Each structure stands twice: as C-alpha cells, then as structure tokens.
Amino acid sequence: MNVPGFLRRVLLLVTVPAALVAAWWAATENSTDFFWPPLSRILGTFDDTWFHGRLTSDVLPSLARLSAGYVLALILGVGLGVAIGSVRVLRAFLEPVLEFFRAIPSPVLVPVLMLFAGIGNGMKILVIVSGCVWPILLNTVEGVRALDEVLHDTSRCYRMRPHSRLVHLVLRGASPQIAAGARQALSIGIILMVISEMFAASNGVGFTIIQFQRGFSIPQMWTGIILLGLIGIVLSAVFQLLETRVMSWYTGLRRSQRES
Q1: Closest CA relative to residue 131, chosen from 177, 190, 174, 206
Q2: Reported pTM
Q3: Which of 59, 138, 156, 198 is the most exposed place for a label (fewest CB within 10 A)?
Q4: For 21-75, what is each residue's pLDDT tens digit?
Q5: Rounded distance between C-alpha atoms, residue 231 and residue 110, angstroms
Q6: Three-state SS sequence of 239-253
C-alpha cells in the first residue's frame, strides 16, 4: 500500500469536516442563545442521550426499517427496471405513469399510506420504498437501454440461456447505473426514515428528535441531528466498500482506460 497516497486521501477526507467542526465550536463557544447552544455542551450530552437505552429502543428500530425499505426498493426497482428497459412496448406504455408517480413527493404520501397501512412499521417501510424505488428504477432502465446491441447479438449467436443472459449481460452491463441509483436512494431513504417517524410513531430517531424539540431539550435535539449525519457517513462508507468489492471489474476497467 502506498502510505503517502493513503495519508493524502485521509487528509482530504477529514480536512473539511474538521474545519466545519472547528468553525461551529468557535462560533458557539460563548453562545448564550437558548436555541444555539455551544457545541461543547451538545457533545457533552451526546453519550447520555443516545447510548443509555435509546440505542436499542430508537436507533436500531430506525435502522431496521431503513434496511427493510431500502432492500425492498432495490429488489423492486431492479426487477421492474430490467423488465421495462428490455421491452420497448412496456417502456412506452408505462413511461407516462412512471413520470406521474415520480413527480409526487414521497412525504405527501404519508397520510395516504397511513389510511391503508396504519401507523405501524409497515407504513414507515412503505414510505421509504416509495421514495427509494425511483432512482433505482430509472437508473436501471437507462442502464439496460444503454447496453450494446452487438453484445445482445453475440449472446443470441452463442445461444446463451435467458438466466445467463440476464445475469452476465443485462445486470452486469447495467450495474454501474444501478449502483448510481442505489447510492442516490440511500440518502433519500435516510430522509424518509426520519419523516415517516415524525407521524404517529412511538420510537425511532425522527420521533425522538421531535420529542426533544417539543420539550425544549435543545442540546439533545442537536445531538439527534448530529447522529443522523453520522449514520449517513457510516452507511455511505459501507456502501462504498460493498460497491468496490462488487464493482471491482468496472473500477479496474476505468483505471486501465485512464492510464492508457
């Protein structure tokens, strides 16, 4: 491993966050504003707020709902995207409907979903699915449509089985676009996880933040916002790690193209 290069990457990753934290600390160090407490006070309450009971009662249920909604959206988006992208008639038939539903903001659907799915975990998972599915679906459609026709002709000449063609040609060829859509869906999922928990919930990170705000526990409310940012960073890092492993052939191809 190239140690100087590795250290340079680490410095690039931590420089801006460290500068933002330092600026926040300096700007609020002597703050007497009730709604803008010092960062030192916020960080001092972080451990007591989240790691003494709420980790299992609020954070883990939120992550479980996010995981369930995200996986369902991934399965639904890739499955429908492959079908729509492969069949031209189906794409022409469904395109107006897809554009209609994509234009509807997912938070608007929360009251509607509450009527049909109640106020339990099912509703919250459906809210996450309703927002995460679109970037995955549309990127999958574009990825399938962009496949080289020569590759399709070659697969037919070699009489590849439908399953092999789906796995090795369609999904593999469209995987860069699918990964791009999945990355967008992850950030959308975190937002919808919080929004869904602000409606008729009894636990979760979003529910707890609202309770802190209503109870004027402002430092604790800020710790919840920081926690959401940290969750986003961790999930993004996990996604990048999985993407690097799964898409190693693609990153290697891009690297060789840049070097040539």
Answers
A1: 190
A2: 0.87
A3: 156
A4: 999 999 998 888 889 999 999 999 999 999 888 899 999 999 999 999 999 999 9
A5: 23
A6: HHHHHHHHCHHHHHH
DSSP letters spanning the chain: --HHHHHHHHHHHHHHHHHHHHHHHHHHTT---TTS--HHHHHHHHHHHHSSSHIIIIIHHHHHHHHHHHHHHHHHHHHHHHHHHH-HHHHHHHHHHHHHHHTS-GGGGHHHHHHHHTTSHHHHHHHHHHHHHHHHHHHHHHHHHTS-HHHHHHHHHTT--HHHIIIIIIIHHHHHHHHHHHHHHHHHHHHHHHHHHTSS-SSSHHHHHHHHHHTT-HHHHHHHHHHHHHHHHHHHHHHHHHHHHHTHHHHHHHHHHHH-
- Residues sharing a CB contact under 8 Å with residue 224, sequence separation 6 or more, in sequence order: 49, 50, 205, 208, 209, 212
Nearest to 178 by CA among 243, 236, 96, 237: 243
Cα gap 81→137, rounded to integer Å? 5
As a dihedral over the C-alpha atoms of residue 74, residue 78, residue 80, residue 81, rounded to 10 degrees, the angle is: 130
Query: Can you read off the two tokens belonging to residue 178?
Result: 């699918």
List pLDDT tens digits, range 184-201. 999 999 999 999 998 778
Let me know: does 247 contact 206? Beta carbons within 8 Å: no
Handedness of CA 100, 102, 104, 106 (dihedral sign): positive
**Distance between CA atoms of residues 108 and 3, nearest Å:** 49
- Round the CA-based radius of gyration of the chain to a whole number and report it: 22
